[in-house]
Write a sequence for this structure.
């Protein structure tokens, strides 16, 4: 913390209060003394102080409310950006950039170079979330925002945000086009770190849940920020009694986080312009129990965050419960309920105009405010929808709609769309949702062309809810014909067989990734037939078990035995007995809901009709098999079930067995955005796949790959390794191949499960992706997120590496020393120079890293030598010679690596010849290094004596477990070391440098001992 800045700010802000210097020190100490361990609690407590301030009690004077940041007048704060700010904790760390407000470091930036391919924002993430959180918690307790960037990618989160949930801030203001890539750094700085915007985000758009089970801190995404602020302005304009009560419609893509937008808006309504909103009562209205429960869970964890709402946040049990709750208060509170509760009885609940209703899924029951005529035995009755009864209950309330698929009625009921819409394409481009891939498979199950015509005619007859009776009757007739088609026994068999084949192939591709599936059928009877056919093909799917994958015993114990495939539909009293029994009770279906959402549960495939196809969120849902006519907003809501972000999931897949393509594209056009579709069609992906196969064919035209396709197993493996050598012979060539193969991999993962590829295309793809995998394994190790290989290719590559002996070389557990005869024998057996070089490089890097724990100074010297070899290797493109010359060049570099390796091993044992311990040797090397760098005379013998004395000093202080972080002990050690160096004639001008290096080495010893 920059205490001078905070002192200046407090003196100026509260100069009318005549704060004494003692009081200012007390205010600073209040935040400075917040414990930094555990870090989450420290960060959360610090944030609450910075966000809300506190009341400073003053003897004989009125208390003063102290705010550490002036949120009302941002320009009166002291903003400072500091580069390479040194922070001493368990280690000395220098974050790339810190943003201070009034001396408080509220944001941390970490940058990686954009010019080096192997330096990514994931490295920046690890640096902050692993190193900084561990080593300098006294700084990190203040940091509420985290930015990671490599120039081409810039993303925002918190110090507790998982890597996959960091997002770009892609707009400066809400009315321009999205900016990605390098321009995202500009939009981040101008959009999120404008002074006024930054203070607004800290004040109202960072959320720490109460009693969080995990270390969770939520920061808004840019569409949530713009939507909440725009909706606030719109409500202000339309709130009754001066307005019409239509607060506006927010159009946000399904899965983009609208519930959090409602949470941020609720905070603004409770804390902004209280004279306008008069501390409103906020009622969150959903139209399904599961959505209601999810929303209630989120809002109930936000009691601290929504403190402006008078601390009443709870779900509502009934209409009467809500009436009772509101009768005792005149303002405040957040209540969560379903719209269906408003028909339990009718009439007025409250006339207050400071009630704001936030209506989720504002395209269904939330819009039916009009009257309908119903013919009964007693005559004609007039009926109304739930939305009408809601408005009768609160005639003076303001109503806001939230939906990813607004219909005309949405705008009529809730008012105009606010300008901050967020489309499907923007959401998938930003990584907030994954892209959707579309795969048509109607041809695989249709029996003849006439049946396709019947289905098309049915789509022509389909009408929206509320159609006139004649249209409804025609639609029913068409449906009866289509049901005869869909229920044809041969077709059901084909459908079941194709779904089983497709799902097996999908899971085979990524066996380590949870991939849940839904099968959507036209009605309950058809769904039951599909279930029976699938179970006949896979009887093991119908046997209860806890899990079909290996799990730790403690995790397995928490799971309930259940079948892999389950039937999820409501029952009817007129159902045949077998159908009636399998549907189960409401409580049973709630259990299925809970288990399907558990990633490790054995329940992987749900057969549904209407349940779960809208408003049901399960991130691990990877594929939806659609055999039901769907249109317009219902179609978009349904296919959006598969677009949630999940680890290892790079797309959501829609498999079409009924011909929804035209309706889907029409719906996407309406609810997506103009230009490129957010849905990847199979035909397009196949074209991309084949194009990249051709491009790589041309690239490797001079390499003979025949043995891979027709040779014996060992010949195939040798060919694979030779191909990896060939690709790496030239750096530019390697970069080109890796770029093309990356795009090939993305297309392959989409088209492989479809069964559309020929055997030759599959073999070629696996060959090229195997080459890619070998290069990654040899040069980059395990890459985050995007480089998970297909299981077939992964096994092939593993076998290849094992057979060539390379695996034995890089596995340091199997060797004792570089001089080991067995190791040298294995090394000489490797005839591929680049593979040998990469294997040695990986092993040497690990050896240097390990030595760094024992002797940091020497490890740095060896690392410099290693880097010189790597730099030489990277200039191989300049060799315009034959492959033999290139091989000789690489082999010479491998020889240099072996020389470094041997020197390192010799240095490890050199302490024995010097007659000292390896710990004393580390301090000896420090003294020699400082001496040689600054070119002064000091005999080696004297360095040996001095090193032993330094070891004694460190051991003396090491009796205190926390000696590395206690300032008093560090200061004492510094003084004792200075005296020791002086007495032994070591030049005093280098005392501080020696001390810093000694402390760094002591930290290494401490970590080494702990392990």
């Amino acid at each position: 913390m920059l205490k001078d800045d905070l002192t200046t700010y407090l003196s100026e802000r509260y100069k009318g209060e005549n704060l004494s210097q003692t009081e200012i020190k007390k205010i600073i100490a209040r935040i400075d003394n917040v414990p930094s361990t555990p870090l989450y609690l420290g960060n959360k407590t610090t944030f609450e102080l910075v966000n809300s301030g506190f009341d400073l009690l003053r003897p004989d004077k009125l208390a003063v409310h102290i705010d550490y940041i002036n949120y009302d007048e941002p320009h009166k704060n002291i903003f400072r950006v500091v580069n390479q700010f040194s922070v001493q904790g368990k280690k000395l760390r220098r974050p790339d950039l810190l943003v201070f407000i009034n001396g408080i470091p509220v944001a941390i930036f970490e940058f990686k170079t954009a010019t080096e391919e192997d330096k990514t924002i994931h490295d920046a993430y690890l640096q902050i979330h692993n190193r900084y959180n561990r080593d300098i918690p006294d700084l990190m307790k203040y940091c509420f925002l985290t930015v990671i960037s490599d120039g081409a990618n810039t993303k925002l989160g918190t110090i507790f945000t998982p890597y996959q949930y960091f997002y770009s801030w892609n707009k400066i203001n809400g009315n321009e086009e999205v900016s990605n890539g390098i321009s995202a750094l500009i939009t981040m700085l101008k959009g999120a770190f404008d002074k006024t915007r930054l203070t607004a985000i800290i004040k109202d758009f960072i959320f720490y849940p109460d009693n969080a089970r995990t270390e969770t801190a939520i920061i808004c995404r840019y569409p949530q920020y713009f939507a909440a602020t725009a909706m606030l302005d719109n409500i202000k304009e339309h709130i009754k009694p001066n307005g019409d009560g239509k607060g506006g419609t927010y159009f946000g893509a399904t899965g983009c986080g609208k519930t959090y937008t409602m949470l941020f808006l609720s905070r603004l309504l409770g804390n902004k312009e209280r004279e306008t909103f008069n501390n409103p009562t906020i009622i969150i209205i959903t139209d399904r129990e599961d959505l209601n429960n999810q929303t209630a869970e989120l809002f109930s964890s936000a009691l601290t965050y929504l403190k402006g709402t008078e601390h009443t946040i709870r779900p509502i049990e009934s209409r009467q419960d809500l009436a009772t709750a509101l009768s005792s208060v005149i303002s405040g509170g957040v209540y969560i309920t379903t719209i269906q509760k408003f028909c339990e009885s009718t009439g007025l609940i409250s006339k207050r105009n400071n009630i704001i209703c936030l209506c989720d899924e504002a395209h269904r029951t939330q819009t039916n405010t009009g009257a309908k005529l119903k013919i009964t035995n007693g005559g004609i009755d007039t009926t109304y929808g739930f939305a009408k009864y809601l408005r009768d209950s609160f005639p003076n309330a303001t109503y806001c709609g939230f939906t990813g698929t607004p219909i005309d009625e949405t705008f009529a009921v809730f008012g105009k769309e606010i300008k901050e819409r967020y489309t499907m394409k923007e959401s998938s481009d930003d990584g907030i949702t994954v892209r959707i891939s579309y795969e048509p498979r109607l041809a695989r199950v249709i029996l003849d062309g006439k049946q396709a015509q019947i289905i098309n005619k049915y789509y022509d007859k389909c009408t929206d809810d509320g159609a006139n009776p004649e249209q409804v009757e025609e639609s029913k007739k068409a449906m009866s014909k289509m049901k005869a088609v869909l229920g044809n026994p041969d077709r059901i068999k084909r459908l079941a067989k194709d779904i089983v084949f497709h799902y097996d192939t999908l899971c085979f591709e990524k066996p380590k990734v949870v991939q849940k599936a839904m099968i959507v059928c036209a009605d309950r009877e058809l769904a039951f037939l599909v279930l029976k056919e699938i179970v006949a093909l896979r009887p093991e799917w119908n046997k209860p078990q806890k899990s079909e994958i290996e799990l730790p015993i403690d995790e397995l114990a928490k799971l309930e035995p259940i079948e892999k495939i389950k039937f999820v539909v409501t029952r009817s009293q007129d159902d045949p007995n077998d159908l009636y029994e399998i549907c189960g009770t409401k409580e049973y279906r709630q259990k299925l809901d809970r288990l399907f959402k558990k990633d490790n549960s054995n329940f992987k495939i749900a057969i549904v009709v209407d349940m779960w196809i809208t408003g049901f969120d399960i991130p691990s849902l990877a594929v939806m098999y659609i055999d039901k006519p769907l249109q317009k907003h219902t179609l978009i809501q349904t296919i959006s079930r598969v677009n949630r972000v999940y680890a290892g999931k790079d797309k959501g897949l829609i498999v079409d067995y009924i011909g929804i393509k035209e309706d889907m594209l029409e719906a996407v056009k309406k609810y997506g955005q103009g230009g490129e579709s957010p849905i990847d069609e199979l035909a397009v992906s196949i074209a991309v796949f084949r194009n990249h196969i051709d491009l790589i064919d041309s690239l490797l035209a001079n390499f003979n790959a025949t043995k891979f396709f027709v040779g014996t197993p060992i010949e195939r493996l040798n060919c694979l390794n030779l191909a990896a050598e060939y690709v790496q012979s030239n750096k530019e060539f390697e970069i080109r191949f890796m770029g093309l193969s990356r795009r090939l991999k993305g297309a392959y993962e989409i088209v492989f499960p479809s069964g559309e590829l020929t055997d030759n295309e599959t073999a070629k793809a696996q060959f090229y992706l195997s080459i890619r995998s070998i290069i990654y394994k040899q040069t980059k190790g395990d890459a985050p997120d995007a480089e998970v290989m297909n299981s077939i290719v992964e096994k092939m590559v593993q076998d290849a590496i094992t057979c060539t002996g390379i695996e034995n070389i890089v596995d340091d557990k199997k060797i004792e020393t570089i001089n080991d005869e067995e190791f040298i024998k294995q090394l000489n057996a490797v005839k591929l120079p680049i593979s040998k070089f990469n294997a040695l490089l990986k092993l040497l890097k690990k050896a240097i890293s390990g030595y760094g724990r024992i002797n940091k100074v020497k490890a740095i010297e060896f690392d410099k030598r290693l880097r010189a070899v790597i730099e030489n290797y990277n200039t191989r493109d300049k060799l315009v010679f034959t492959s033999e010359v290139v091989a000789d060049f690489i082999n010479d570099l491998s020889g240099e690596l072996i020389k470094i390796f041997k020197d390192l091993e010799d240095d490890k044992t050199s302490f024995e010849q010097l007659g000292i311990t390896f710990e004393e040797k580390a301090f000896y090397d420090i003294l020699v290094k400082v001496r040689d760098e600054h070119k002064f005379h000091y005999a080696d013998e004297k360095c040996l004596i001095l090193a032993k004395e330094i070891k004694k000093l460190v051991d003396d202080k090491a009796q205190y477990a926390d000696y590395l972080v206690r300032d008093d002990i560090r200061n004492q050690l510094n003084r004792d070391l200075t005296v020791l160096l002086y007495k032994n004639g070591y030049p005093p001008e280098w005392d501080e440098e020696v001390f810093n290096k000694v402390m760094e080495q002591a930290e290494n010893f401490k970590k080494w001992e702990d392990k």
